[in-house]
Design goal:
Layout: E1 5-8, H1 12-23, E2 28-31, H2 36-40, E3 47-48, H3 50-58, H4 63-68, E4 70-72, E5 75-79, E6 82-86, H5 88-92, E7 96-98, H6 101-114, E8 119-120, E9 124-129, E10 137-142, E11 145-150, E12 153-156, E13 174-189, E14 199-201, E15 208-212, E16 218-224, H7 235-245, H8 248-253, E17 259-273, E18 276-277, E19 280-282, E20 288-289, H9 297-316, H10 322-348, H11 356-371, H12 373-383
Parallel strand pairs: 1-2, 1-12, 2-8, 5-14, 12-19
Antiparallel strand pairs: 3-7, 4-7, 5-6, 9-10, 10-11, 13-16, 13-17, 14-15, 15-16, 17-20, 18-19
Helix pairs in contact: 1-6, 1-9, 9-10, 11-12
The protein binds adenosine-5-diphosphoribose and P-hydroxybenzoic acid.
Residues 45-47, 198, 209, 211, 219, 292-295 line the site of P-hydroxybenzoic acid.
Length: 389
């Protein structure tokens, strides 16, 4: 089989890229190792920057998001038992859209299938070949039959554990990583959110986040030890601990209910550079991971997709040079989002080995931030998302 772009991975990166390429008349096949249900079972962050919203609009997959998503004009930080609002709209003129990544993926899947675009799910032994040449290919097993797809380009949209990055010779790639000494325990529950806007909580017992998926569905997180297991955390223990980390008046308003999903995620900052190896391009989590504080993961995946789509569109229109700039363009934005996610993580969490000086610095920084319009603007302009340069 032949296609112009072979896309590996049907997460948000792969599906969004496929949709945009199809809009430009560029043929593509998506090859995914899991089933659609498995892909939709992963619960991830739910805050979209305006540039991501715009890209979903361009891709023609934003109708439900505009109906069901919740535009937020502000976000709260809570420390010392007090809640402080950051006026995102007032400080930057921009807002964010609260709409779950699972729903973004569902909309992309529906659009792909409605457009009749080629997608292979449950592909085994996916492998990339000859990407140092102009005629790369992808092979996979489907129902025990081996298939090969010849392409002009391969887009590695196969996430952090995928095979694309791993197929690059070690000498050709640099990896930069920071692993944090804690995780996030997340609970999804069909209860109304405790507050209309998100609350990021700094507390001596550990960070907490009050987020939401709709007016009837909440998403809450607690900083937990890396050694914690989900089974150790009953629903009751989760809600009790969350209440301890919230101001009393907020805890009193918290509505609790049975968890419909509960999981622990480790926190990591990671970047692989460059993001292009001949005919192979890395996109999204395949190239970089941010800790979830700040909700940049999906938004960064979307900006990679925007850059790669533009580059490929130009390529097929006869302008070959933009392809050369994909990696540098994407990385310039990625490193800024890495910095912001690392900074916000450092600001809001308890670090087990922090001495009293580090704790005082964290406190002073929060105090300064909330007293300075300039500092709040820095936070706000990063939170709503930096422009696509
Ligand atoms: N072959 C085919 N598909 C693969 C392979 C493989 N060898 N390995 C992984 N995959 C698939 C995974 O099953 C998954 O569906 O690639 C997809 C990658 O999707 P994501 O992990 O969601 O990555 P991405 O699309 O880049 O999305 C980035 O996800 O993790 C969040 O915070 C992140 O929000 C961001 C978004
Ligand atoms: C979420 O709703 O899951 C979420 C929101 C904001 C974050 C991280 C996760 O920073």
């Amino acid at each position: 089989m032949k296609t112009q772009v072979a896309i590996i991975g049907a997460g948000p990166s792969g599906l969004l890229l496929g949709q945009l390429l199809a809009k430009s008349g560029i043929s593509n096949t998506v090859i995914e190792q899991r089933s659609p249900d498995y892909v939709l079972g992963r619960i991830r962050a739910g805050v979209l920057e305006q540039t991501t919203v715009d890209l979903l609009d361009t891709a023609g997959v934003a109708a439900r998001m505009h109906q069901e998503g919740l535009p937020h004009d502000g976000v709260e930080l809570c420390f010392g038992g007090e809640r402080h609002r950051i006026d995102l709209l007032g400080l930057t003129g921009k807002r964010v859209m609260v709409y779950g990544q699972t729903e973004v993926t569902r909309d992309l899947m529906a659009a792909r299938s409605a457009a009749g675009l080629s997608t292979v799910y449950q592909a085994d032994e996916v492998a990339v070949h000859d990407f140092d040449s102009a005629s790369p290919s992808v092979s996979y097993l489907k129902d025990r039959v081996r298939h090969t797809v010849q392409a002009d380009f391969i887009a590695g949209c196969d996430g952090f554990h995928g095979i694309c990055r791993a197929s690059v010779p070690g000498a050709a790639i640099s990896l930069h990583e920071k692993v944090y000494p804690f995780g996030w325990l997340g609970v999804l529950a069909d209860v109304p959110p405790v507050s209309p806007e998100l609350i990021y909580v700094q507390h001596e017992r550990g960070f907490a986040l009050c987020s939401q998926r709709s007016k009837a569905r909440s998403r809450y997180y607690l900083q937990c030890a890396l050694s914690d297991e989900v089974a150790q955390w009953s629903d009751e223990a989760f809600w009790d601990e969350l209440k301890r980390r919230l101001p009393q008046a907020t805890a009193a308003q918290l509505q609790t209910g049975p968890a419909i999903e509960k999981s622990i995620a480790p926190l990591r900052s990671f970047v692989a550079e460059p993001m292009r190896f001949g005919s192979l391009f890395l996109v999204g989590d395949a190239a970089h991971i941010v800790p979830p504080t700040g909700a940049k993961g999906l938004n960064l995946a979307a900006s990679d997709v925007a850059y790669l789509w533009q580059a490929m569109h130009s390529y097929y229109a006869g302008k070959h040079s933009e392809i050369e700039h994909y990696s540098a363009r994407a990385l310039a934005r990625i490193w800024k989002a890495e910095r912001f996610s690392w900074w916000m993580t450092s600001l809001m969490h308890q670090f087990p080995d922090a001495g009293s000086f580090a704790q005082k610095m964290q406190r002073a920084e929060l105090d300064y931030l909330l007293g300075s319009q300039a500092a709040m603007t820095v936070l706000a302009e990063n939170y709503v998302g930096l422009p696509l340069a």
